[in-house]
Amino acid sequence: MMLPTSTYRLQFREGFTFDKAVAILPYLKTLGISHVYASPIFSAATGSTHGYDVTDHNEIDPAIGGREGFDRLSAALKQHGLGLILDIVPNHMAASLDNPWWRSVIELGPDSPYARHFDIDWRERLTLPILGKPYDEAVADGEIALKFENGKPVLAYFDNHLPLHPDTIEGITPETVGDLSGDRAFLEALHARQPYQLTFWKTARKHLSYRRFFEVTGLVGVRVEDPAIFDDVHRLILELVRSGQVDGLRVDHVDGLADPKTYLDQLRAAIGPDTYLVVEKILNGEEVLPQDWPIEGTTGYEFTAAIADLLSDGSKTAELDQAYADLLGAPVDLEEERRRAKQVMVKENFETELKGLVALAKKSIHPPLDDEAIRDAIAAIVIAFPVYRTYINKEGIRDDDRRLLEQVANDAKTSSQIAESAINAVLDCLFRAATSSNGAAEFTTRFQQLTGPVTAKSVEDTLFYRFNKLIALNEVGCDPAEPVGSVARFHDKMKARVSEQPHGLLGTSTHDTKRGEDARARLYAISEAPDVWAKAVARWRSMNADAVQQLDDGPAPETDTEWLLYQALAGIWTGEADPKTLASLKERFLPYVEKALREAKRRTDWSDTNEAYESAVLAYAERLFAEENQAFHSDFDATLKPIMAAGRINALSQTLIKLTAPGIPDIYQGAEGEDLSLVDPDNRRAIDFTKLSQALASNDQRPWPNAVADGTAKQRLIAAGLALRNARPDLFASGNYQPLEITGEKRDHAAAYLRSQGDDVVLAVVPRLPLGLYNQDGSQTPDWGDTAIVIPADLTDRRLINHLTSAETTIGETMRLADLLKDCPVALLATA
Q: Glycosyl hydrolase family 13 catalytic domain: from which residue to which, for each copy (predicted)?
């Protein structure tokens, strides 16, 4: 296998096409990238902004250039010596009339050749939750009518023109549709004869006849566990791999599949051993990637968590906890908040899935239990789940999964009032999946497909917007309850990567991260100065107090939301307060605020919006950008200057680690510059590649402090680091990882390690907790005093070259940080 030495993620759509990708390939080659990593390129729903709502797995989307455009990109990639990794979406497709398979299912129901392609419960009519009100009201209001389209009658609901089963259209002609549309009894009878039933979208959580992606009813689960359906979904994908146009695949949401291990075995057999293969998989806590999966690793969310651990100040956690508690009036019980969020999610938002599990469990629980007991037991186990899922299949249950389920069951018993007998009965169903033929196997599959969505929606998309102490830690792959600030723990995680996934991706920004990597790097600095931050927030709240509105259900915004808003704004603040900059920031910030409020699900949410509350909070947010609010702008900017400077140092440390740690560095589009994005869609904005290319061409000879100050140092560091990786691919692909001891007065402010293979050695040195090291403007060299790295005896007297400054040094028993970092904040040394 020709491993990537680096990947560069490109987001197609919204104006970015294959031909535009061709135009930037010279820049990517100069930067040092080895492989382009493309978002989904297959045909997606009309107007798709991301491509994960696939409508045709076997057609390259004409909206981004079609097959001809892809072939031009493929030829250009080969011309520049670049590879291609494709993001594929086997778990779900768009439940859209644009999708010919889905359209066939709507028209023909169980008679469709694609009826079994989707995860549909055909014991009833297919539910289509597209109505904006209950069905009877929609009919009474004349919103449902008959029309003719392409020579056939359709049932029209606004822009949704639904096909009718051929056996039900007799007597419907272009001449009769007008009269029949006004005949309510006829319409209701016609609707009753269809293989589908139109339903109010808000009732989908209570009743839905198909598996969806998370809570998104517009994405329907696909049964790729069926070999024939696997073939249908992957036909073009495999053609592109076998033709040599595609060098690697990234599997989206692997935990949503019925049996990830079997799927990956089948995919690996189809693509061969030389195709690079990674999966989107979130590893929680101490969870380890299953080592029998035939893949190179994950997309790297766990690496983001390791960086957060290293760059946050754990010594001041208690101080930050107290500041946040003082703001709220009481400490936050984070685990109780997590439990509540999961309880709401599993019992309300995923009510239809829970009902389905109860029905399946009843078939194999003996002696029988009533529905309520089974329901409460399943819910208690799901709520207690600490990871996304287990991987029980027809081959049996792994020891790790057995231990996990037993622990989860014990936790469920102690944290709830549910009878032990009911929990034990559900656990027994899960354990019997591999051998049972009476429903336990399907129950276990559906159970395992539920725990992940519940965790994602309750933690990442609820708790992360409710617990705002330090939002840099509220990131995909992270857990704000985990301790931070341990250099030793970081080194342990990196050493583990050498054996567990040495070729997995090292991601710090993706299309799904809650904020850009440089925004997080900046916000980590708040952990170093909780008192400064708390006092600042108190000042800003006072300055903007007259913008808080008193509503019947409380103040808007509440204090916790104010704390969130100031942190989120700190992450994107540019240091400029001119009208144009403020207007641009506001345009990006207000949609984020709306999303944050709805994801928190406290006083408003996506399905039941509280317009008065949202309007009040958005008005407060707008006030932050008002030209007349100059006193706030001045105070905010002055407070942020040292935090922004510290953030740039953190960003360089984060980047150098990504370039040298075990794994393959993944650069998200534009993140080689300063990535101060908010959550999607802000992180999918168009990238100015001309500006980036010009910066790369002009930045080589400038002093590092100047590049650090203006935010261009990271791109320069990436180019230097990738050049070294490209020159020594074997060392980075299979070399050892060795932590180095640091001594002296500032030892807690740095981390260092070696990557080595034989006599070939790379030494990486990064600062951490920079707020206490640098002056406010970040331009001064820190006083490292006697701080030094202890060098292993077998490396002394070796000559190393600093690939960032070109300085040469001979290694002694120790290396002083004052010498190593005098010209550049980070150091990247390698044997000559």
A: 5-728
Q: Is 115 exposed, middle or buried (0-12, 13-18, 19+ CB in 10 A)?
A: middle
**pLDDT (average), residues 686-707:** 90
pLDDT the model gives residue 172: 92
Cα dihedral 593/596/599/603 (nearest 10): -70
Strand partners, 163: 154
The SS3 assignment for 200 reads strand
Where along the chain do the CATH 3.20.20.80 domains lie?
A: 7-91+224-280
**Amino acid (one-letter) located at 572:** I
Class of domain 100-217: alpha beta
Q: In this structure, are residues 395 and 292 in contact, taking their beta carbons and an 8 Å threshold?
A: no
The pLDDT tens digits for 193-211 are 999 999 999 999 999 999 9
Given a cut of 90, whether residue 675 has pLDDT beyond it is yes
pLDDT tens, residue by residue, 41-56:
999 999 999 999 999 9
- Quickly count: other Cβ atoms within 10 Å of residue 569's Cβ: 20
Q: How far lies 143's CA from each of 137, 156, 158, 765, in Å?
A: 9, 8, 7, 66
Distance CA 488, CA 508 (A): 20
Report the CATH fold assignment for 545-628: Arc Repressor Mutant, subunit A (1.10.10)
**Residue 780: pLDDT band with limits 50, 70, 90:** low
Is 756 within 8 Å of 736 (Cβ atoms)?
A: yes
The pLDDT of residue 65: 98
- Cα 160 to Cα 166: distance, rounded to the nearest angstrom: 18
Q: What is the mean pLDDT of residues 473-500?
A: 97
Radius of gyration of the chain (CA): 28
The pair of three-digit structure tokens given for residue 149, joined into one six-digit string: 């389209």
| pLDDT tens-digit map of 499-521 | 999 999 999 999 999 999 999 99
Where do the DSSP E strands lie in 164-314? 196-200, 212-213, 216-221, 248-251, 276-279, 297-298
Residue type, 18: F
Q: Boundaries of CATH 1.10.10 in the chain?
A: 545-628
Single out the residue of 659, 759, 613, 779 nearest to residue 708, CA to CA. Answer: 779
Could you identify the residue written with the tokens 């169980």? Answer: 110
User: What angle separates helix 371-383 from helix 351-362, to the nearest 10 degrees?
Assistant: 120
Side chain identity at 737, as an amino acid letter? Y
DSSP 459: I
16, 55, 53, 56: which is closest to 36 by C-alpha?
16
Q: What are the phi and psi torsion angles at 251 (to 5°)?
A: -95, 120
Q: 446-456: b or e for each residue (b if 16 or more CB lie within 10 Å)?
A: bbbbbbbbbbb
Q: pLDDT at position 9, please?
A: 98
The one-letter amino acid code at 699 reads N
Q: Let me know: does 169 contact 155? Beta carbons within 8 Å.
A: no
Task: State residue 341 phi and psi, 5-degree precision.
Answer: -65, -40
Q: Across residues 138-160, what is the average pLDDT?
A: 93
What's the CA gap between 647 and 770, in Å, rounded?
A: 8
Q: Which CATH number fits domain 7-91+224-280: 3.40.50.720, 3.30.200.210, 3.20.20.80, 3.30.200.20?
A: 3.20.20.80
Average pLDDT, the chain: 95
* Predicted local confidence at residue 775, as pLDDT: 59
Q: How far is CA 417 from the centre of its chain?
A: 34
**Residue 198 tokens, joined:** 């139109």
- DSSP 8-state class, residue 457: I
Query: What single DSSP character describes residue 723?
Result: H
pLDDT of residue 711: 87
pLDDT in tens, 633-661: 999 999 999 999 999 999 999 999 999 99
